[in-house]
Design brief:
The protein folds into three domains: about 110 residues, Orthogonal Bundle (Butyryl-Coa Dehydrogenase, subunit A, domain 1); about 110 residues, Beta Barrel (Butyryl-CoA Dehydrogenase, subunit A, domain 2), CATH 2.40.110; about 150 residues, Butyryl-CoA Dehydrogenase, subunit A, domain 3 (Up-down Bundle), CATH 1.20.140.10. The chain starts with 6 loop residues before the first helix and ends in a 7-residue tail after the last helix. It contains twelve helices and ten strands. The relative contact order is 0.11. The chain is α+β, with helices and mostly antiparallel strands. The structure holds flavin-adenine dinucleotide (FAD).
Amino acid sequence: MDFALSEDLLEMRDQLRLLVRETVAPRAADIDRRGRVPEDVLAAFREAGLAGKGYPVEYGGSGLGLLGLCLAVEEITKYCCSSGVVLLLTRLPGAPILYGGTAAQKEKYLRGITSGRLRAAFGNTEPQAGSDSAGIRLLAGREGDHYVLNGAKSFVWGAAAADFFVISARTDPESRHGGISMFVVDRDTPGISIDRFEQPMGVRGISLGEVVFSNCRVGAGSLLGRENGGFPLLMKSLNSVRPVVAALGLGLAQGALAYALDYTRERQAFGQPVARFQGTRWKAATLATEIQAARWLVYHAATLVDQGLAGKEHAPYLAMAKLFATELAVKASSEALQMLGGCGYTRAHPLERFYRDARQLTIVEGTSEIQREIIGRAVVGGAIDYL
Ligand SMILES: Cc1cc2nc3c(=O)[nH]c(=O)nc-3n(C[C@H](O)[C@H](O)[C@H](O)COP(=O)(O)OP(=O)(O)OC[C@H]3O[C@@H](n4cnc5c(N)ncnc54)[C@H](O)[C@@H]3O)c2cc1C
C-alpha cells in the first residue's frame, strides 16, 4: 500500500498553492459579499487548466484523475468555499456524461468543460423530492424521436451561469427506479427558464436557482445512456463525486484551523498567548488528528473512483469520506470560531463565513443521514466484513 502522492500531483499542488494565495485568498471575503466569483478568478482557473482536473486526457483533461481534482479543491477551499464549488461544478454535471454519454456527447460537453468554454449545472432535486431521488416527477414525454420536458429542478447550483444542464427525468410514470432517464439540455433550448433564486446562508458566490422546463423539446441526442436506465447512472455519478464534496470539507476544516491558530498565537489573555492554554492545544490536537483521518478517507475514496470503483459495492467507502469530512468541516469551523472569542462572530474575521459555508456540506450531494443509510446498510447487511 503506497500512501505517497505522485511527483505530478505534488508539483500540481505546489503550483496551485501559489495561485490560490495570490488570486483566491485576497478575494474570498469579497466573493461572499458580492455574491459571485469574479471573471478574473475564473480566468486564472482556466489558464491553470483547473476545469479539466477531474477528466482523462482524451477529453482534454489533466489526466491527474479525481485525486488531482480533490487536491485542487482542498487547496482552494482552505480560503474560499465558493471558488472550490466552481471546481465541483466541472465534475458533478459531467459525471453522467463521462459514464453514460456517447462519443459525440463527450466530445461536445466534456471538451467544452475541460477547455473552460462551457459551464454546466446539475439538476436532480425537485421541490417535492431531494433525498428520495426515485421520487422525481419532471416528465420527459416521448414524441417520436423527441422528448418533451415538463417540470422543475430546484437548488441547482450554478444555474445562472450554466451553458447546459444535466438532469434526471421521468420517462416511465408507471415505474419508480426503472422509469428514470438522464438528459443533457442546452440552456438556450426554448422552454427553459430560471424562475427563482434562493438566498443561501453560505457559498454565496455560486447562484442557487430553480430551473423550470415548460414544453421544452429536446432531440433523442439529449438522452444520456439508455431510456429508463437513468437511476443506476445517477447513483454511480453521485457516488463518484462524493470525494470532491468531501474535499471541500477537508480544505475548509484546514483553513479554519490555520486561521484560528494564527490568531491564538498572537492574542494574549492572562499574561500569555491563548495558544499556550491547554484548552487551545487540545482542541487543535483533536482537529488536526481528525483532519489527517479525513485526508486519508478522501484520498482513498478518490483513488477508488480513479480505479473505476464507484458502483454499489464501493459506495459505502465513498459515503464515509463525504460523511466524515463534511461533518468535520462544520465542527472545525465552529471550534475555530470559538477560539477567536467575540472576534470570531464578526465579519472582521473569516470564520463566520467558514461556518456559514460549511453548513451546507452535510446537506448537498446526499445528506449525512443518507450517507449513514448507505454505510449502515452495508455494515448491518454484512457487506463490510469485520471478522
Ligand atoms: C447549497 C445547496 C446546493 C445544492 N446544489 C444542488 C445541485 O446543484 N443539484 C441538485 O440536484 N441538488 C442540489 N441541492 C439539493 C440537495 O442535494 C438536497 O437539498 C438534499 O439532497 C436533501 O434533499 P431535500 O432538501 O429535499 O431534503 P429531504 O429529502 O426532504 O430531507 C429532509 C430531512 O429528512 C432526512 N431524510 C430524508 N430521507 C431520509 C432517510 N431515508 N433516512 C433518514 N433521514 C432522511 C434528510 O436527511 C433531511 O434531514 C443543493 C442544496 C443546497 C443546500
